[in-house]
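LOG
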Amino acid sequence: MTRELESHLGSFGTHLAKRRPPLCPELTLWLLGDDVDLEGGCDELAEGEAPPFWAFCWGSGQALARHVLDHPELVRGREVVDLGTGSGIVAIAAARAGAARVVATDLDPLSRRAATLNAALNGVVIETSPEAPVAWDLMLAADVLYETGLRDWILGEALTRGPILLADPQRTGTPRVDAPILRTIPSCTFPDVDSPQKNVVLHRLERVGVDSS
């Protein structure tokens, strides 16, 4: 299996292990194993590749996936988009909760491959794409506000396409979202390379005057 993972995911594939995220133990993901020295960083593993953000289950993704699994009525029978899918945990949770269609988007092709492999590991099927479709019943977005351009798109044009359920770790330096907080969930990245972030807030965003029920 190590060679197969390496063929799909490059050098990082040899350092992955099947792991169950603490907040979503019913799901299994290929994530960096305990043999990787996180304190020393992952640069020595990269061999020129981009950082493997998809090889971690980030706290916001775990929190949003947990919320979807706890409230399957949010996605059941609907067309769902997972923005910046990473490991694919949110997309997988949506598929497990009964979404009619799940499109996991990420600019990183390795992330899209990892999400597909992780979906198969959990017995669900998702689609992947480098960009969001023109419309959706619900977009799921975790920890995506740190880039100004993407933040502006989410709070602007994206809301004309459909409602968004947003998970925000409220990072230092990232402006807060002016929307009611639905839920605050204690959550840490797994394996933890994001230790200052301990809580995630959830917001539902939708265009004023649009009925998305």
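LOG (cont.) second protein
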Amino acid sequence: MFLGQAHERAEARTRLVVILTASFMVFEITTGFVFGSMALLADGVHMATHVGALSLAAGAYWLARRHATDTRFSFGSGKFGDLAAFTSAIVLGLIALGVVIESVRRLMAPVHVHYAEALAIAAVGLAVNVASAALLHDSHEHHDDRRLEHRDHNLRAAYVHVLADAATSVLAIAALGSGLLFGIAWADPVVGVVGAAVISSWAYGLVRQSALVLLDAEDDPDLARDIKVLVEREAGSQVSDLHLWRLGPGHRGLIVSLVGGGEADNERIKRMLVERYPGLSHVTVEVSVCAECADR
């Protein structure tokens, strides 16, 4: 219940990207240590966080599908993806801190870097990132249907993370190229710091976005105002309370409380809202009779 469009397609693409990147992640981190490249190591660690985040995303898709009809989840299982996104973002923040500490240590005590070997590996890593982005972009566009209300935060977070990973690979290539061609040794650990900043920025945005969904924050203030105006006009009653929140990708819940003279038809109002706003998947309309209102 309340799963996003093309849920199985997104799940399958995410699993494929996990397999692709996990295979290269192990190789990149290992060679980062062997060749002494902090930029390569940071890129590998970033790819590791990417694998972790995508694994959580894939697991969330599976759990959401498995519990779609579980009555214990009053408003469906659509938020598994947001829970996975929040968890992976916390882990990303901690890993970014570790990368910064190691980069600063290498700025103070430089180590020898095998630039040519590390550069070749970073280039392959960029190719893997581009391939992963292409896979998720295709699924993301199919899933999004170019409408904001149908956006899957879980899939979108994975896609943006892959783009950030690709950007870090580009920075690593630039740093290693500078060291190889011009002997700029400090560029490698500096890029480690920049890569950590990219990870931190992505983690902060994801924490904020997913936390708002998990805390049932108002999903769309403009839409809530439009609904309030429409209901008061059509029902001839005053809206005393209105709650609009996200249930899952493409699904919103709505509770509207009306105070009027007893003429408002809650079933008619509910049908009107569902027809007018297709993204409203769970609608509750409460009508309270106000004796004084009937005489006005």
